[in-house]
Amino acid sequence: MRSVIKLGMAVAGVGLLATAASADMLQVKGSDTIINLVQKEAEVYMQQNAGAKISVTGGGSGTGIAALINKKCAIANSSRAINAKEVESATSSGVAPSRIVIAIDGLSVVVNGSNPLNKLTMDQIGKIFRGEIQNWSEVGGSNMPINLYGRQSNSGTYGFFREMVLKGEYSSKMNTMNGNSQIVEAVKADPSGIGYIGVGYAKNASGVTILDVAMGQNGSYKSPLDKAAVEAGQYPIARPLYQYVNGTPTGAIKDFLSFELSEQGQRIVEEEGFYPISAEYKEANAKFGL
To answer: Residue 263, Cβ neighbours under 10 Å: how many?
Structure first.
């Protein structure tokens, strides 16, 4: 008998979650960026493994890592690396976080489809989100104010973008949204809008323009939709997407992770708009027997 995932709608930013839980259900919590991907992985895995039960919920990378530390989940989805403070808390709780890379993301900067702009440098994007550039005319666009849309502070994407692109603090005028889909809808409705989303959401978005990005003014502009550029590290805002577990995975946890990293699991990664992991990350995962 094929097992079935029972899903219900939850509040925005949390995603889809199982309507029932049980002692033998594998709990997966965290990143909004990869919730749809991991939901799909879980759905297919359960169809192929009678009796398997997996609940996948969102709330942000910080929420997932906190749940792992507090032993409220078996797997934490995260779009950023665990930080030193979280490692310290985990150690105090008797948890040893192990990092597995399941996919690659080309974090995408998007503007309203009516905006004639189609490219920016990393420096320009940083200045825009720090609030130092406030009009599109300053970067070759139309004479209109820039409206910012970003993630809430418990989001791994919020932290990654701040560290890798802003290298400073976000403008106090940025509108904080609960998830990638909300950012897409906000930018789509705002001719002056700009936001950042995972490539899996960008590929399926309508009404927005996905910008090409260069490291510097004289650099080569690359698109997050260019798989070769992302895999080669030529797209400047590429990043690995993680799952954290306690120690070396065994049993049902290891079995599900192995499925995600299998040929079929990595095809699902691509079907959901992300990119499969490279040889470098396969080697890193192998130390956990995956």
So the answer is: 7
Dump pLDDT digits (tens) for 164-189: 999 999 999 999 999 899 999 999 99
Q: Which of 69, 55, 57, 53 is nearest to 32 (CA)?
A: 57
Residue 36, both tokens = 């749809």
Q: Which homologous superfamily does the CATH classification assign to the domain defined by 7-105+240-286?
A: Periplasmic binding protein-like II (3.40.190.10)
Domain ranges of the chain: 7-105+240-286, 108-231
pTM of the model: 0.85
Please answer whether residues 237 and 272 qualify as being in contact, where contact means their C-beta atoms are separated by less than 8 angstroms: no
**What is d(CA 142, CA 8) in angstroms, rounded to the nearest whole number?**
43
221-258 confidence digits (pLDDT tens): 999 999 999 988 899 999 999 999 999 999 999 999 99
The answer to whether residues 104 and 276 touch, using CB atoms and an 8 Å cutoff, is yes
Gap between the Cα atoms of 127 and 92, Å rounded: 39
CA angle 171, 177, 179 (to 5 degrees): 130
Rounded distance, CA 183 to CA 173, Å? Answer: 15
* pLDDT range class, residue 4, cuts 50, 70, 90: very low
Distance CA 17, CA 10 (A): 7
Rounded to 5 degrees, φ, ψ at 86 are -70, -40
Q: 169 with 158: CB under 8 angstroms?
A: no
CATH 3.40.30.10 fits 108-231, yes or no: no
